[in-house]
Write a structure and sequence with these properties.
homodimer; alpha+beta; three-stranded antiparallel sheet; 3 helices; 10 strands; globular
Protein backbone atom coordinates (compact mmCIF):
# COMPACT_ATOMS: atom_id res chain seq x y z
CA UNK A 1 0.00 0.00 0.00
CA UNK A 2 1.51 3.30 -1.05
CA UNK A 3 0.20 6.76 -0.48
CA UNK A 4 2.29 9.61 -1.77
CA UNK A 5 2.28 12.65 0.52
CA UNK A 6 0.31 15.58 -0.85
CA UNK A 7 2.63 17.98 0.93
CA UNK A 8 5.55 17.84 3.31
CA UNK A 9 6.79 20.46 5.78
CA UNK A 10 9.90 20.07 7.94
CA UNK A 11 9.27 21.47 11.43
CA UNK A 12 12.86 21.00 12.59
CA UNK A 13 16.03 18.98 12.04
CA UNK A 14 18.55 18.20 14.75
CA UNK A 15 21.39 15.72 14.35
CA UNK A 16 19.79 12.54 12.99
CA UNK A 17 16.19 13.58 13.79
CA UNK A 18 13.70 15.51 11.68
CA UNK A 19 10.14 16.39 12.60
CA UNK A 20 7.92 16.41 9.52
CA UNK A 21 4.26 17.28 8.90
CA UNK A 22 2.72 15.61 5.88
CA UNK A 23 -0.71 15.73 4.30
CA UNK A 24 -1.49 12.20 3.14
CA UNK A 25 -4.49 10.25 1.87
CA UNK A 26 -5.46 7.36 4.12
CA UNK A 27 -6.30 4.02 2.47
CA UNK A 28 -9.97 4.99 2.90
CA UNK A 29 -9.37 8.13 0.82
CA UNK A 30 -9.61 10.59 3.70
CA UNK A 31 -6.94 13.33 3.75
CA UNK A 32 -5.15 13.81 7.09
CA UNK A 33 -2.19 15.78 8.38
CA UNK A 34 0.28 13.53 10.19
CA UNK A 35 3.39 14.18 12.24
CA UNK A 36 6.39 11.90 11.75
CA UNK A 37 9.65 11.96 13.66
CA UNK A 38 12.05 10.78 10.98
CA UNK A 39 14.80 8.55 12.35
CA UNK A 40 17.66 6.73 10.55
CA UNK A 41 16.95 3.38 12.26
CA UNK A 42 18.78 1.52 15.00
CA UNK A 43 19.96 -1.84 16.24
CA UNK A 44 19.12 -3.76 19.42
CA UNK A 45 21.28 -6.65 20.59
CA UNK A 46 20.57 -9.46 23.06
CA UNK A 47 24.01 -10.66 24.21
CA UNK A 48 23.78 -14.26 25.51
CA UNK A 49 26.65 -15.63 27.57
CA UNK A 50 27.90 -19.22 27.28
CA UNK A 51 26.01 -20.02 30.50
CA UNK A 52 22.76 -18.65 29.04
CA UNK A 53 22.46 -15.39 30.94
CA UNK A 54 21.80 -12.04 29.27
CA UNK A 55 23.90 -8.88 29.38
CA UNK A 56 21.78 -5.82 30.12
CA UNK A 57 22.80 -2.21 30.62
CA UNK A 58 21.83 0.18 33.34
CA UNK A 59 21.71 3.47 31.48
CA UNK A 60 20.82 7.07 32.33
CA UNK A 61 18.26 8.46 29.89
CA UNK A 62 17.97 12.26 29.90
CA UNK A 63 14.58 12.21 28.10
CA UNK A 64 13.10 10.54 31.18
CA UNK A 65 15.67 11.71 33.76
CA UNK A 66 15.88 8.09 34.89
CA UNK A 67 18.37 5.25 34.91
CA UNK A 68 16.79 2.15 33.37
CA UNK A 69 17.68 -1.40 32.36
CA UNK A 70 17.96 -1.93 28.62
CA UNK A 71 19.58 -4.25 26.14
CA UNK A 72 22.47 -2.70 24.20
CA UNK A 73 21.24 -0.57 21.30
CA UNK A 74 22.36 2.25 19.08
CA UNK A 75 21.47 4.43 16.13
CA UNK A 76 22.65 3.60 12.62
CA UNK A 77 25.24 5.95 11.22
CA UNK A 78 24.64 7.16 7.68
CA UNK A 79 24.81 4.23 5.26
CA UNK A 80 25.85 1.84 8.04
CA UNK A 81 25.01 -1.85 7.72
CA UNK A 82 22.89 -2.97 10.71
CA UNK A 83 25.17 -5.95 11.50
CA UNK A 84 28.25 -3.69 11.51
CA UNK A 85 26.40 -1.23 13.75
CA UNK A 86 25.43 -4.06 16.12
CA UNK A 87 29.05 -5.27 16.35
CA UNK A 88 30.23 -1.69 17.05
CA UNK A 89 27.57 -0.89 19.65
CA UNK A 90 28.03 -4.23 21.43
CA UNK A 91 31.73 -3.51 22.02
CA UNK A 92 31.19 0.16 22.88
CA UNK A 93 28.42 -0.49 25.38
CA UNK A 94 29.32 -3.84 26.96
CA UNK A 95 33.05 -4.36 26.41
CA UNK A 96 32.32 -7.69 24.70
CA UNK A 97 32.68 -8.72 21.09
CA UNK A 98 30.69 -11.65 19.65
CA UNK A 99 31.75 -14.60 17.49
CA UNK A 100 28.15 -14.82 16.22
CA UNK A 101 25.61 -12.10 15.45
CA UNK A 102 22.33 -13.80 14.63
CA UNK A 103 19.64 -11.65 12.94
CA UNK A 104 16.30 -11.73 14.77
CA UNK A 105 14.23 -9.53 12.46
CA UNK A 106 12.87 -6.07 13.13
CA UNK A 107 10.93 -4.12 15.75
CA UNK A 108 8.95 -0.90 15.44
CA UNK A 109 9.29 1.10 18.68
CA UNK A 110 6.81 3.89 18.01
CA UNK A 111 4.81 3.35 14.79
CA UNK A 112 2.25 5.97 15.79
CA UNK A 113 4.60 8.88 15.19
CA UNK A 114 8.09 7.65 14.25
CA UNK A 115 9.48 5.73 11.26
CA UNK A 116 12.31 4.14 13.28
CA UNK A 117 13.05 0.50 12.46
CA UNK A 118 15.13 -1.44 14.99
CA UNK A 119 17.21 -4.30 13.55
CA UNK A 120 17.53 -7.08 16.12
CA UNK A 121 20.44 -9.41 16.74
CA UNK A 122 21.40 -12.09 19.23
CA UNK A 123 25.10 -12.05 20.10
CA UNK A 124 26.73 -15.33 21.19
CA UNK A 125 30.29 -16.54 21.64
CA UNK A 126 31.11 -13.41 23.65
CA UNK A 127 34.71 -12.47 24.48
CA UNK A 128 36.20 -9.36 26.12
CA UNK A 129 37.09 -6.54 23.78
CA UNK A 130 37.71 -2.88 24.34
CA UNK A 131 36.63 0.22 22.50
CA UNK A 132 36.33 3.88 23.32
CA UNK A 133 32.91 4.29 24.94
CA UNK A 134 30.60 7.11 23.97
CA UNK A 135 31.38 9.94 26.37
CA UNK A 136 27.78 11.18 26.16
CA UNK A 137 26.42 7.97 27.68
CA UNK A 138 26.44 6.85 31.32
CA UNK A 139 26.24 3.06 31.22
CA UNK A 140 26.91 0.11 33.52
CA UNK A 141 26.83 -3.53 32.46
CA UNK A 142 24.54 -5.93 34.34
CA UNK A 143 24.40 -9.68 33.66
CA UNK A 144 21.09 -11.39 34.50
CA UNK A 145 19.65 -14.87 34.33
CA UNK A 146 16.45 -15.31 32.33
CA UNK A 147 14.56 -15.84 35.58
CA UNK A 148 15.91 -12.61 37.01
CA UNK A 149 14.90 -10.72 33.87
CA UNK A 150 11.39 -12.20 34.03
CA UNK A 151 11.05 -11.24 37.69
CA UNK A 152 12.17 -7.69 36.84
CA UNK A 153 9.58 -7.51 34.06
CA UNK A 154 6.89 -8.68 36.48
CA UNK A 155 7.95 -6.26 39.25
CA UNK A 156 8.23 -3.25 36.93
CA UNK A 157 12.01 -3.01 37.22
CA UNK A 158 12.47 -3.69 33.49
CA UNK A 159 10.05 -1.64 31.38
CA UNK A 160 11.97 -0.88 28.19
CA UNK A 161 9.68 -2.16 25.41
CA UNK A 162 12.38 -3.09 22.86
CA UNK A 163 14.29 -5.10 25.49
CA UNK A 164 11.23 -7.07 26.60
CA UNK A 165 10.17 -7.62 22.99
CA UNK A 166 13.63 -8.86 21.95
CA UNK A 167 13.79 -11.18 24.97
CA UNK A 168 10.43 -12.60 23.78
CA UNK A 169 11.82 -13.04 20.25
CA UNK A 170 14.83 -14.88 21.71
CA UNK A 171 12.59 -17.16 23.77
CA UNK A 172 10.31 -17.96 20.82
CA UNK A 173 13.29 -18.64 18.55
CA UNK A 174 14.89 -20.92 21.16
CA UNK A 175 18.08 -18.83 21.41
CA UNK A 176 17.16 -17.82 24.96
CA UNK A 177 16.18 -20.69 27.22
CA UNK A 178 13.36 -20.16 29.70
CA UNK A 179 13.94 -21.74 33.10
CA UNK B 1 18.53 10.84 40.39
CA UNK B 2 17.51 14.32 39.32
CA UNK B 3 19.25 16.69 37.01
CA UNK B 4 17.62 20.03 36.41
CA UNK B 5 18.02 21.27 32.84
CA UNK B 6 20.43 24.15 32.46
CA UNK B 7 18.41 25.46 29.53
CA UNK B 8 15.40 24.44 27.49
CA UNK B 9 14.43 25.40 23.95
CA UNK B 10 11.22 24.35 22.23
CA UNK B 11 11.88 23.46 18.58
CA UNK B 12 8.21 22.94 17.72
CA UNK B 13 4.82 22.05 19.16
CA UNK B 14 2.09 20.26 17.23
CA UNK B 15 -1.06 18.86 18.82
CA UNK B 16 0.14 16.80 21.79
CA UNK B 17 3.81 16.67 20.70
CA UNK B 18 6.63 19.07 21.48
CA UNK B 19 10.24 18.76 20.41
CA UNK B 20 12.58 20.18 23.04
CA UNK B 21 16.34 20.72 23.22
CA UNK B 22 17.77 20.81 26.73
CA UNK B 23 21.24 21.29 28.13
CA UNK B 24 21.55 18.92 31.08
CA UNK B 25 24.29 17.61 33.33
CA UNK B 26 24.76 13.86 33.11
CA UNK B 27 25.18 11.92 36.39
CA UNK B 28 28.94 11.95 35.64
CA UNK B 29 28.88 15.76 35.59
CA UNK B 30 29.33 16.14 31.86
CA UNK B 31 27.08 18.74 30.18
CA UNK B 32 25.24 17.53 27.07
CA UNK B 33 22.53 18.85 24.76
CA UNK B 34 19.70 16.36 24.41
CA UNK B 35 16.61 16.19 22.21
CA UNK B 36 13.34 15.02 23.74
CA UNK B 37 10.06 14.47 22.00
CA UNK B 38 7.63 15.35 24.77
CA UNK B 39 4.54 13.15 24.75
CA UNK B 40 1.53 13.05 27.14
CA UNK B 41 1.68 9.27 27.62
CA UNK B 42 -0.50 6.49 26.29
CA UNK B 43 -2.20 3.21 27.08
CA UNK B 44 -1.78 -0.26 25.54
CA UNK B 45 -4.38 -2.97 26.08
CA UNK B 46 -4.20 -6.74 25.62
CA UNK B 47 -7.82 -7.87 25.18
CA UNK B 48 -8.14 -11.57 26.11
CA UNK B 49 -11.28 -13.44 25.04
CA UNK B 50 -13.00 -16.03 27.22
CA UNK B 51 -11.40 -18.75 25.08
CA UNK B 52 -7.91 -17.28 25.67
CA UNK B 53 -7.24 -15.71 22.31
CA UNK B 54 -6.03 -12.13 21.85
CA UNK B 55 -7.66 -9.30 19.91
CA UNK B 56 -5.18 -7.51 17.70
CA UNK B 57 -5.69 -4.69 15.22
CA UNK B 58 -4.50 -4.39 11.66
CA UNK B 59 -3.84 -0.67 11.41
CA UNK B 60 -2.50 1.67 8.73
CA UNK B 61 0.35 3.81 10.09
CA UNK B 62 1.17 6.89 7.99
CA UNK B 63 4.59 7.36 9.66
CA UNK B 64 5.67 4.06 8.09
CA UNK B 65 3.19 3.95 5.19
CA UNK B 66 2.42 0.40 6.25
CA UNK B 67 -0.44 -1.60 7.70
CA UNK B 68 0.75 -3.51 10.77
CA UNK B 69 -0.57 -5.71 13.54
CA UNK B 70 -0.78 -4.03 16.95
CA UNK B 71 -2.60 -4.33 20.22
CA UNK B 72 -5.16 -1.56 20.85
CA UNK B 73 -3.49 1.61 22.11
CA UNK B 74 -4.11 5.32 22.35
CA UNK B 75 -2.80 8.62 23.61
CA UNK B 76 -3.93 10.07 26.95
CA UNK B 77 -6.10 13.14 26.69
CA UNK B 78 -5.19 16.01 28.98
CA UNK B 79 -5.66 14.97 32.61
CA UNK B 80 -7.15 11.63 31.59
CA UNK B 81 -6.83 8.66 33.93
CA UNK B 82 -5.02 5.77 32.18
CA UNK B 83 -7.74 3.22 33.07
CA UNK B 84 -10.46 5.51 31.67
CA UNK B 85 -8.38 6.01 28.52
CA UNK B 86 -7.93 2.23 28.18
CA UNK B 87 -11.68 1.64 28.49
CA UNK B 88 -12.37 4.34 25.87
CA UNK B 89 -9.74 3.16 23.38
CA UNK B 90 -10.76 -0.49 23.74
CA UNK B 91 -14.33 0.30 22.69
CA UNK B 92 -13.31 2.75 19.95
CA UNK B 93 -10.76 0.44 18.36
CA UNK B 94 -12.19 -3.05 18.88
CA UNK B 95 -15.95 -2.64 19.46
CA UNK B 96 -15.63 -4.51 22.76
CA UNK B 97 -15.97 -3.32 26.32
CA UNK B 98 -14.37 -5.18 29.23
CA UNK B 99 -15.74 -6.24 32.61
CA UNK B 100 -12.17 -6.24 33.95
CA UNK B 101 -9.23 -3.94 33.19
CA UNK B 102 -6.18 -5.35 34.97
CA UNK B 103 -3.15 -3.04 35.30
CA UNK B 104 0.07 -4.59 33.97
CA UNK B 105 2.54 -1.81 34.74
CA UNK B 106 4.35 0.46 32.32
CA UNK B 107 6.41 0.32 29.15
CA UNK B 108 8.84 2.85 27.69
CA UNK B 109 8.66 2.72 23.88
CA UNK B 110 11.54 5.06 23.01
CA UNK B 111 13.58 6.10 26.06
CA UNK B 112 16.45 7.35 23.89
CA UNK B 113 14.54 10.38 22.66
CA UNK B 114 10.96 10.40 23.97
CA UNK B 115 9.45 10.69 27.45
CA UNK B 116 6.34 8.67 26.53
CA UNK B 117 5.14 6.24 29.21
CA UNK B 118 2.69 3.53 28.10
CA UNK B 119 0.28 2.29 30.80
CA UNK B 120 -0.53 -1.36 30.20
CA UNK B 121 -3.78 -3.20 30.85
CA UNK B 122 -5.22 -6.64 30.24
CA UNK B 123 -8.92 -6.57 29.32
CA UNK B 124 -11.03 -9.63 30.17
CA UNK B 125 -14.75 -10.34 30.31
CA UNK B 126 -15.22 -8.80 26.86
CA UNK B 127 -18.66 -7.99 25.48
CA UNK B 128 -19.78 -6.15 22.33
CA UNK B 129 -20.15 -2.39 22.67
CA UNK B 130 -20.27 0.36 20.13
CA UNK B 131 -18.67 3.76 19.97
CA UNK B 132 -17.90 6.24 17.25
CA UNK B 133 -14.54 5.19 15.83
CA UNK B 134 -11.79 7.71 15.18
CA UNK B 135 -12.27 8.81 11.59
CA UNK B 136 -8.52 9.45 11.24
CA UNK B 137 -7.69 5.79 11.83
CA UNK B 138 -8.03 2.85 9.43
CA UNK B 139 -8.36 -0.22 11.63
CA UNK B 140 -9.53 -3.82 11.34
CA UNK B 141 -9.94 -6.22 14.25
CA UNK B 142 -8.09 -9.55 14.11
CA UNK B 143 -8.46 -12.25 16.78
CA UNK B 144 -5.48 -14.60 17.17
CA UNK B 145 -4.54 -17.55 19.31
CA UNK B 146 -1.35 -17.25 21.35
CA UNK B 147 0.32 -19.78 19.04
CA UNK B 148 -0.64 -17.73 16.00
CA UNK B 149 0.77 -14.58 17.61
CA UNK B 150 4.01 -16.39 18.45
CA UNK B 151 4.32 -17.69 14.88
CA UNK B 152 3.77 -14.15 13.56
CA UNK B 153 6.48 -12.82 15.90
CA UNK B 154 8.87 -15.51 14.65
CA UNK B 155 8.05 -14.92 10.97
CA UNK B 156 8.31 -11.14 11.21
CA UNK B 157 4.58 -10.54 10.66
CA UNK B 158 4.20 -8.96 14.11
CA UNK B 159 6.97 -6.45 14.83
CA UNK B 160 5.31 -3.78 16.97
CA UNK B 161 7.51 -3.61 20.09
CA UNK B 162 4.82 -2.58 22.60
CA UNK B 163 2.53 -5.40 21.46
CA UNK B 164 5.24 -8.08 21.76
CA UNK B 165 6.36 -6.67 25.13
CA UNK B 166 2.82 -6.62 26.53
CA UNK B 167 2.20 -10.17 25.30
CA UNK B 168 5.36 -11.16 27.22
CA UNK B 169 4.08 -9.36 30.33
CA UNK B 170 0.78 -11.23 30.01
CA UNK B 171 2.57 -14.57 29.66
CA UNK B 172 4.86 -13.92 32.65
CA UNK B 173 1.91 -12.79 34.78
CA UNK B 174 -0.11 -15.89 33.82
CA UNK B 175 -2.99 -13.85 32.31
CA UNK B 176 -2.09 -15.12 28.86
CA UNK B 177 -1.62 -18.88 28.60
CA UNK B 178 1.14 -20.20 26.36
CA UNK B 179 0.19 -23.31 24.41
Amino acid sequence: MTTAPLSRRILFSWRHFSGVLRDVLLPNGKPVTTFTLEHPGAVVIIPITDSGSIIFLSQYRPALNETIFELPAGTLEQGEDPAACAARELIEETGFAAKNLIPLGKLLPAPGFCNEVQWCFAATGLYPASAAGDDDEVIEVREMSINEAKRLIESGGLIDAKSIALLMKGLIGGLVRGE
